[in-house]
Design a protein that fits this description.
With about 400 residues, the protein is of the alpha/beta class. It is built from 13 helices and 14 strands.
Length: about 400
């Protein structure tokens, strides 16, 4: 069978557990989506040391950004108004390539390390079903043979088998990282009634410790896709790496939230998304400049639906693909340059321009212009307010009815 492997706590113990309980050959698969060389380089050695027959490590950073992150960015999708979906959109990509490897190796099953209380189990398994419904799915955390009930249990299981770990019972945050973000759960975050420190941060400077001098960055978009920084065209990976560094330096993209999981419970997490946050802000500003009112308002509602679908693991569905068609149509005019001012966690608009700008300085100002007669507004308001006026006149005759 093929295991989605990260080298973290859960998947490190799952390799020997699968061998001990299913008597199978385990092939590990790790996706390099920007976790950093410190995490990806030793994965093959560690996987084989813990019992895997081999370990694939595929560089999927470019595909992750261009085929997953950019569509989510163009949609303006934010789950519950804050979460920029870094883990959510990565899981379908990982599961897709896991299925391709399973087919290549002739495996009968796929496995993952997601718990039965989280969202990732859904994202993995829905993708498996969409890609190859004939593969058997083995999810140890939901298996009756699985006796590990906590991260502390998992640490003890690993220590008994001399499996090296990067976590301990003292520093027990659960982390998931990629080029887009780094998430933190567990530990002190499980107690929202208590203030926590920022000891878990790795990408972002706490805003109070960020530079006292603001920074500036110009982001260029072509049809909604980021293509350059400060006048220089860049590929997707290099562009986001630079934005992560700059945004992290100025404390941007830090979210601490309690979210509603798909499975029905609330969980608390800290998300570091420095570069992604800058892209969202710039993209939103550019849409304000280039999209007409009705399209922009409707697209905002589409963004909410898109975010929920991605969060719920519904990536490989006809509805998401159909929403992409609508979103791509709106993005035909989202071309231009946006300069952000970065200061202690904030990314505000400095300036922007677009060849498709709908902003007319004369029309939008207070002076009279030929294209707008202010007297026309009188009739417009009378027509718009007629239903309210008639209701007030009719109901006003009845003393016992309050308007």
């Amino acid at each position: 069978m093929v295991l989605a492997y990260s080298g973290g706590l859960d998947t490190s113990v799952i390799i020997p557990w699968l061998i001990e309980n299913y008597d199978v050959e385990v092939i590990a698969f790790a996706a390099d989506i920007g976790q950093g060389k410190i995490e990806t380089d030793p994965l093959k050695k560690k996987a084989v040391m813990t019992g895997a027959s081999k370990c694939y490590v595929l560089d999927l950073k470019k595909e992750f950004l261009e085929e997953y992150a950019w569509p989510v960015l163009k949609a303006g999708a934010r789950y519950e108004g804050q979460y920029l979906l870094g883990t959510s959109m990565a899981r379908p990509l990982i599961a897709k390539h896991q299925v391709l490897i399973a087919e290549k190796e002739g495996a009968f099953a796929v496995s993952h390390g997601a718990t039965g209380k989280g969202n990732d189990q859904v994202r993995f398994e829905l993708t498996y079903m969409a890609m190859n419904p004939r593969l058997k799915i083995i999810a140890p955390w939901k298996d009756p043979k699985w006796k590990i009930r906590s991260r502390e249990d998992a640490i003890e299981y690993a220590e008994a088998r001399n499996i090296p770990l990067t976590v301990s019972k003292k520093k027990i945050y659960s982390e998931d990282g990629n080029l887009w973000h780094l998430s933190h759960e567990g530990g002190s975050l499980e107690h929202p009634e208590q203030e926590h420190g920022w000891d878990m941060l790795r990408l972002t400077t706490p805003p109070e410790k960020a530079p006292n001098t603001p920074g500036y960055v110009e982001i260029e978009f072509a049809k909604g896709i980021p293509v350059g920084l400060d006048g220089k065209r860049l590929g997707a990976v290099e562009l986001l790496e630079k934005l992560n560094e700059l945004g992290g330096k100025h404390g941007c993209g830090l979210v601490d939230m309690v979210e509603n999981r798909l499975v029905g419970m609330k969980s608390r997490g800290v998300y570091e998304t420095p570069g992604g946050t800058l892209l969202y802000r710039a993209h939103e500003f550019l849409e304000q400049l280039t999209l007409d009112r009705d399209t922009l308002l409707y697209k905002l509602s589409i963004g909410q639906k898109y975010a929920q679908m991605v969060y719920d693991g519904l990536w490989f569905t006809p509805l998401r693909q159909s929403l992409d068609a609508f979103i791509d149509k709106t993005q035909e005019v989202v071309t231009g340059r946006v300069t952000l001012k970065l200061y202690k966690g904030n990314a505000s608009l400095a300036k922007m321009d677009s060849p498709f700008s709908l902003y007319d300085p004369g029309l939008g100002g207070f002076s009279d212009v030929d294209t707008y007669n202010q007297q026309d507004a009188t009739g417009f308001i009378k027509c718009l307010g007629l239903p309210m006026k008639m209701r007030a006149l009719l109901l006003g005759k009845k003393s016992n009815v309050r308007i």
